[in-house]
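The data are quoted verbatim for completeness:
=====
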Amino acid sequence: MAESTTTTKHDVTVAFGRIALTGSLVHDDEHRVLELEDAEGPAEPISISLQGYGLTPEPGNVFIKDWSEHSGLTARLAQAGLVKPVHALAVGPFGSTAYEVQVTL
């Protein structure tokens, strides 16, 4: 039987600018996805795919964008003990900041 690659932490509140959402933070390590889910399913993606830039996070890690509604999100998640920043990356045509983080649910 294969070991599950999904970890969940329930009753997590995540602030996105002026909006805060509460649900379960779900990390699917196999697909390098971190998302907030509510009773109806996925509510808000936390991670971002950078495969278009040829980048894949290390096992146990995901990428989080730090622009638009996600500005400061990595710092808030780290302060809550949910992720640990590994390094920053400049991506896209505007050199926007994204972070590779270790998920620590």
